[in-house]
Design goal:
Length: 412
């Protein structure tokens, strides 16, 4: 298989706090519609979170939902929607030639916490431990649940890439298609962290959990008054295939993946390294054979933490200092941080820009942090662009994992 094989996106399936389809998600991004709420978290009381509202029973029985996981249900819903939007002749496909690559921040925490709590109600008698625990918590679970639900017999696995997981899923799908290991890939990421007390408590004890009287004003990347992350759930899977195959079946092409980069800070468990982030973006640009000024839209990772936002902006200014046509936005200001889903979900929200040449804004930047100043940072309202042919999407995670994906408007 030639490494020059062109890989394209032909289907998009997503679940977000403010939309369960690309059309609905995009509509709300352009309308400035955020959707954050308060949920009652065990041991902590009310906390802010982005929670999805989708009908899991569209593709699962109630028993499957009960014995499976939230991440699995999100993944299954996204996979079905990605296949439907791709218009693949699914019943005729060789399912051994389909791969499933799902990025995730963590998995098993929700199930383990819940089961320990339930066990406490029975004096910690182990005979009451849930016998579904092991398949629920193994690392390959979300991808495995998709495999079983759809009868896919090709390779499936999850990629633990912290908050870079969604991008890693996409990159893995691209690589496996280029290697000829599969003919179609369901690739992206899912996040289920809103069910985990430990995730909320961990960020709170780091001083990095957002709080604000108006929930929809809590996620505020780049704003001087930001005070932390809004933890959210969600998912996005893309149908990926080789360009020749997509053209042969006259598929709709949402975009072409032309470059990517992955590297590591190797410095700190939580504090990012702006130099390494810049190197990751340059690696992706090099693989795409592009210069910074060729990028029209940068989807930033910024999570609303003080140091995280500042260090990413330092990296962005370094890379795009001579790119007056590049514009920047952020999606977490609408939906919070969907963790393992973030890279894929945030890329999806920008893909329609190829058609309408509009970039959605960053919300809640009422008092810009001077250290987060970026040229052409789009805030408050959408902006019409002269050109919208390339998107660079950043996604960075704990333990210093950095990922960048570059997608181009398809040109035959």
């Amino acid at each position: 298989m030639e490494w020059s094989q062109r890989i394209v996106i032909t289907g998009v399936g997503l679940v977000a706090p403010n939309g369960n389809s690309l059309a609905e998600f995009r509509k709300h991004l352009l309308e400035g519609c955020a959707r954050i709420q308060r949920i009652d978290m065990r041991y902590m009381g009310l906390v802010l979170a982005g929670v999805c509202a989708f009908n899991a029973t569209d593709y699962q029985t109630k028993k499957e939902i009960r014995t499976g996981t939230r991440a699995g249900s999100i993944g299954i819903y996204c996979a079905h929607k990605a296949i439907e939007s791709s218009r693949l002749p699914w019943e005729l496909l060789d399912k051994s030639r389909v791969g499933i690559y799902v990025g995730i921040t963590e998995h098993g925490t929700v199930e383990t916490e819940n089961e320990v709590y339930q066990l406490s109600q029975f004096g910690y008698d182990a005979k009451y431990w849930n016998h579904h625990h092991n398949p629920r918590t193994v690392a390959n679970n979300p991808a495995g649940e998709i495999s079983i639900n759809l009868g896919i017999t090709g390779p499936h696995y999850t990629l633990g890439g912290a908050c870079a997981g969604g991008n890693l899923g996409i990159i893995q799908g691209v690589q496996m298609l280029r290697l000829g290991e599969v003919d179609y890939a369901l690739a992206g990421g899912v996040g289920e962290s809103t069910g985990s007390f430990g995730i909320f408590a961990g960020f709170k004890n780091q001083g990095a959990l957002a709080e604000r009287s108006d929930p929809n004003k809590a996620s505020r990347p780049f704003d001087r008054d930001r005070n932390g992350i809004v933890i959210s759930e969600g998912g996005c899977l893309f149908t990926l295939e080789r360009l020749d195959d997509a053209l042969a079946r006259n598929a709709e092409i949402y975009g072409e993946i032309i470059g990517y980069g992955i590297n590591s800070d190797a410095t700190n468990t939580v504090l990012p390294d702006s130099q390494r982030q810049a190197e990751c973006m340059r690696l992706a640009l090099q693989k795409a054979n592009l210069q910074p000024n060729d990028i029209d839209i940068v989807s930033t990772h910024a999570t609303s933490t003080i140091e995280g936002d500042r260090r990413e902006c330092q990296a962005l200014r370094d890379v795009f200092k001579d790119a007056p046509n590049t514009h920047f936005n952020n999606t977490k200001s609408f939906i919070g941080h969907t963790m393992g889903a973030a890279g894929a979900l945030e890329l999806a929200g920008n893909l329609p820009s190829f058609e309408d040449k509009i970039i959605h804004p960053t919300l809640n930047v009422d008092n810009l942090d001077p250290e987060c100043e970026l040229p052409n940072l789009v805030t408050h309202t959408p902006k019409k662009l002269q050109r919208a042919n390339t998107i660079l999407s950043n996604s960075f995670g704990m333990l210093g994992i950095n990922s960048t994906v570059i997608v181009q408007r398809f040109n035959s």
